[in-house]
Amino acid sequence: MVEQLDEVKIRTAAEADAVAIANVHVHSWQEAYEGIVPAEHLAALDPVARAAEWTQFLRNGPHDHVRTWLAESPSGVLGFVTLGPARDEDANRGDHEIYSIYLEPGAWGHGVARDLLRTVITEVGGRSALTLWVLAANDRARHFYRRNGFQADGTERFEDVGSAELLEVRYRRG
């Protein structure tokens, strides 16, 4: 599906994109978290149920200053990123958080995630800090964030994912 990466466009997501976003979301989880998240949980991820969630989310439009952007090529949606106000207790007013950034696995390593991240960084500007949470065992993602100016800030938490307690690390930029 990822033949024409030279023609990638970034645009704001709309309700009509829910099914494509859901498919990317599920495919990315199943590939990126293999060996990290319990296999039964990954196998049970349902693109139809996820599409219903995304439809509801996107139907409401940008709310509470939360926005989702898509990366797409002529062959379809390659990835997405969602940005909103930072939700951590120690966040300063005006800080932002990347809630999710996922790509179709075939688009990994082609600059698509970098383009999505640049869109978010441009949106935030230098006005505030930008944070995100990443599974500690997700070395590929952690390397990507470090290459793009994020650093682990020493804050960690456990997240229940598929009946497993997985360690997450917070990364910060700015």
How does this structure look, described?
The protein is of the alpha+beta class. The protein has a single domain (5-173), classed as Gcn5-related N-acetyltransferase (GNAT) (Aminopeptidase), CATH 3.40.630.30. Helix content is 32%, strand content 32%. It has helices spanning 18-32, 39-44, 47-59, 112-124, 139-147; strands spanning 9-12, 67-73, 76-85, 96-103, 130-135, 151-161, 164-173. The chain has a seven-stranded mixed β-sheet with strand order 1-2-3-4-5-7-6, with helices on both faces. A hairpin with a 2-residue loop joins strand 6 (151-161) and strand 7. Helix 1 crosses helix 3 (47-59). The radius of gyration is 16 Å and the shape is globular. The N and C termini lie far apart (35 Å). The model has no long low-confidence stretch (mean pLDDT 93).
Helix and strand topology:
Elements: E1 9-12, H1 18-32, H2 39-44, H3 47-59, E2 67-73, E3 76-85, E4 96-103, H4 112-124, E5 130-135, H5 139-147, E6 151-161, E7 164-173
Parallel strand pairs: 4-5
Antiparallel strand pairs: 1-2, 2-3, 3-4, 5-7, 6-7
Helix pairs in contact: 1-3
